[in-house]
Write a structure and sequence with these properties.
Blueprint lengths: L1 H21 L4 H6 L1 H4 L2 H6 L3 H14 L2 H6 L1 H16 L16 H17 L4 H10 L1 H30 L14 H21 L2 H5 L2 H10 L5 E4 L9 H4 L6 E2 L4 E2 L9 H5 L5 E4 L11 H12 L4 H23 L29 H7 L5 H5 L5 E3 L9 E3 L12 H5 L10 H5 L1 E8 L14 H5 L5 E7 L2 E9 L9 H5 L16 E11 L1
Antiparallel strand pairs: 1-4, 2-3, 5-6, 7-10, 8-9
Helix pairs in contact: 1-7, 7-10, 7-11, 8-9, 8-13, 8-17, 9-18, 10-11
Amino acid sequence: MLKKIRIILGVISILAVTLLFLDLSGTARDCWGWLARIQFIPALLSMNLLAVVFLLALTLLFGRVYCSVICPLGIYQDVVIRLHSWFGPRKKRKNRFSYTPAWRRTRIAVLAGFSLMLVLGLTTAVAAVFAGLLEPYSAYGRIASQIFAPLYDWTNNQLAEWSVAHDNYMFSPVAIAVSVPVLAVAALTAVVVTVMAWRGGRDYCNIICPVGTVLGYMSRYSLLRPMIDTSRCNGCRKCERNCKAKCINGKEHKIDHSRCVACMDCLDNCSTGAVRYTWKRNMPAKGDSPAKQSESNQNTDNGASGVSRRAFLLTGGFVAGSLAVKAAVEGDGALAAVRQKKAPLRKTPLVPPGSLGLLHLGSHCTACQLCIRACPEGVLRPSTSLDSFMQPRMEFTDAYCRPECTACSSVCPAGAILPLDTATKASTKIGRAVVDITLCISANGQKCGNCSRQCPSGAIMMVPVDADKPDVLMPVVSDEICIGCGACEYNCPVGTAGIIKSSEHSAIHVEGIEIHREL
């Protein structure tokens, strides 16, 4: 039953996480948004100590069940492995694995590099972005948001078109948004993970994934674990040939618990009941004394070299140090329809309310794309700049950031965008509006004032430009009131078809500020 329970929980988990990126109604976010917050690295970055303690306790008690039940990328690999058992070459559908020694040096090197990038992410978002490339939840999030979500939206639009043709309005069409650079990264990640899972089982988890390495070392001391009872083993080694983690040495009756993902496949494949999931560390072997068997188990549990232990402690120090420094710098920091225009080149990028500023967002964001997918107005876009690649940036070509919307702040699992209520958001200054007089049609004698009428905070006033021409008005922005929501930029008619054809941008745009503040 353990394997069946693992499969059921894993299927529920990956479907629920995937729906967080597909569902645009917010129902999934409201019902099980906590699933994103208990992912290991996002919980660390957001200082969610309750989630971190829960995951560590879970690992120390049951082993690496996180990798088989909670982590969506790990469950995705299990899906690929299962598909191989159904559709792969007939000779390799079963009994296709064999024990291989652990890639200890590679695992430690990747973990050390990942930890270093987390620390360097405090000063430059480039390092944080590269750390996000290896983070398993964010990697799956990009796959879900850039590959699965567009297919989901396309299917919805086809159903909407069909239902309208039959006088049924059950489905509503939605805009399909894809970022080519992020799609390329997501596709490359999907190919690498899929190929490694198809050919080598859980190789990605036990060679590349930094979370797998950290929890792997923790699971070596778990109270419950698969163990081989040599008094019952008939030497068939079927458990070894079906272990997708390649951690069972059937010849020597040993299991590398740092690589075991607690999938329970070995229990299911053992016909003699020799493999058991138990808390007992010592199982008597045929012809072996209890002391000898105890020594064998001790050698198995402590198989890592002293260098590996020191490297693990060193990288653990990197992670702990990064969290401490992050805590220290926590304070950083019905409208007229307008045709789409091009976004301006902003001197300072715009980041969403709740992110506190460029530094905080850049050092915490792992670019999972959940906030971008959750944004109902499509204001958040993946950055294509190298120093913030795939992290959220705000653009107002299709809409503006409505003061009453807090969707992005309610879904971020890594603490890059902190939760805030509508009153706090409406008074949070994230940027300032700037007017280009050379493009403004009001300042050039035509009546408009659209930016002033649509400004939700009343920060834009229309004033005379010349005492001799009191009828010629131009917009003037009050920097003390403007919050940078982008309503003026979105609703400015300049740059649209038929109005100042030489300009592709609005006559008024919003410049970001590095540190947000509350008015």
